[in-house]
Write a structure and sequence with these properties.
alpha/beta; six-stranded mixed beta sheet; two-stranded parallel ribbon; globular
């Protein structure tokens, strides 16, 4: 991986959402539900939800990255896991910020595939090594990405709060 980074600004994020929404609409795909992978996918789901006029947004929490370039062995779904009845026979668009290894997207895609009419994925960035090739991608890159919502350190450090309690 290069030392150079992709720098996504909020302005470029807006452009990415409109571009991806246009690609999805032009493709004729009309999702019933947008399923965001928290946390980065929350921004994408919200942006696409407004642009595609989809109000039915769901969230799936998946833990995989533990730091810059460090991960768990496998992604893990965290509660609450979406009820499969809510997804039954629906067209689902899975939204995330990046398909890096693709392991998180694969976990969510496989979870949805058994219960939905159709599942497709939309990401801002897709990396060459991703196990999942998303139907909708704003940009392909092999660089580390600075997202506007995560480039600054947290204002509050939760570990400090737990230790001090």
């Amino acid at each position: 991986m290069s030392d150079e980074r992709e720098n996504l600004t909020y302005e470029l994020f807006g452009t990415a959402m409109r571009d991806m929404a246009r690609a999805i609409a032009d493709d004729g795909y009309e999702p019933d539900i947008i399923l965001s992978i928290a946390r980065g996918g929350l921004f994408v789901a919200g942006g696409l939800g407004y642009a595609l006029d989809v109000k039915n947004l769901h969230v799936m929490n998946v833990e995989f990255y533990t730091g810059v370039g460090t991960t768990l062995d496998m992604p893990v779904m965290l509660p609450p896991v979406p009820n499969v009845v809510d997804l039954s026979k629906k067209k689902v668009l899975v939204a995330d910020d990046v398909a890096d290894t693709g392991k998180t997207l694969k976990l969510v895609h496989d979870f949805c595939a058994e219960h939905t009419a159709e599942v497709r994925s939309a990401v801002i960035y897709e990396k060459p090594q991703s196990l999942v090739k998303c139907e909708y991608v704003w940009k392909h890159t092999d660089r580390w990405i600075n997202f506007p919502w995560s480039v600054e350190p947290p204002v509050v450090h939760r570990e400090d709060q737990v230790r001090d309690a």
